[in-house]
């Protein structure tokens, strides 16, 4: 997504995310805002959360963040003529296509806004998968009996096939590195036999998400029976958590 800087028309950046209610997740989003602010210091930055549940939770805490539709309507009402929407989606799944459709509708509003552009998700093409795999593996150093599993969100949407392909690419680059998903495929159960076949004794778990939210805090890291940590521990593996912001 390219932003035109040399014009006098009122413009803004709108960052759209699923949302988060956790301080650790908010810290990650703040880091994204800092990067953007350094890159585009003269362009106002606004936020929108797609999750209604998270927006309602935050309102009870005194924090009001609009939906993407409400944010776009407000920017138009305030006289912005060019809006650049940064999508924090990992893949072009259901939520991304919903956002894309809404933005197209706003772009048809006559005499209100001249341009609305939306960025692509993080991973769309095979080249994207190659680049992402290289980045996530860049600082990973594993001993002979160690492995790492990245936790992706996953989806039943056809775009979920991207996670399957990305896991294959990651595993081809490092046979002891895997990507599993919470919803969709690959599943953790599909990865476990591969760990045992290699004689793995220690497994590192690391989020492959924009923020460490419910799935990471509850589904991966807690000691509850259904968490990834507990499932792998029950399989006789030592589990270490890698939670970075």
Quick structural summary:
The chain is of the alpha/beta class and 245 residues long.
Blueprint (SSEs and pairs):
Elements: E1 11-17, H1 23-39, E2 45-49, H2 52-60, H3 68-77, E3 82-87, H4 94-107, E4 115-118, H5 126-137, E5 146-152, H6 161-173, E6 177-181, H7 188-197, E7 202-207, H8 214-220, H9 228-234, E8 238-241
Helix pairs in contact: 3-4, 5-6
Give your account of this protein's structure.
It is a single chain. With 245 residues, this protein is of the alpha/beta class. The chain has two domains: 11-118, Rossmann fold (3-Layer(aba) Sandwich), CATH 3.40.50; 126-241, Rossmann fold (3-Layer(aba) Sandwich). It has helices at 23-39, 52-60, 68-77, 94-107, 126-137, 161-173, 188-197, 214-220, 228-234; strands spanning 11-17, 45-49, 82-87, 115-118, 146-152, 177-181, 202-207, 238-241. The strands form two sheets. Strands 2-1-3-4 form a four-stranded parallel β-sheet, sandwiched between helices. Helix 3 (68-77) packs parallel to helix 4. 32% of the residues are buried.
